[in-house]
Amino acid sequence: TFRECKGVCVVADKKIKVTLTRSLICQKPKLRKTAEALGLRRPNRSVLLPDTDDVRAMIKVIEHMVAVESA
Length: 71
Known about the structure:
Elements: E1 2-5, E2 8-11, E3 15-20, H1 29-37, E4 46-50, H2 53-61, E5 66-70
Antiparallel strand pairs: 1-2, 3-4, 3-5
């Protein structure tokens, strides 16, 4: 399906599975907030997220703490 966001069509059908592989303890507050905004709160937990540029940018910030696979 398509959804419109600020006049731009975004395809939200594709999903990616993101798994938190490292603990949020002793991480910088910005990294901790980014992980929590993605729905990652505990190590070894996974969430399904839409494969959009916004989500990819957030994953790029914490790429050393997560594992990403296509769903």
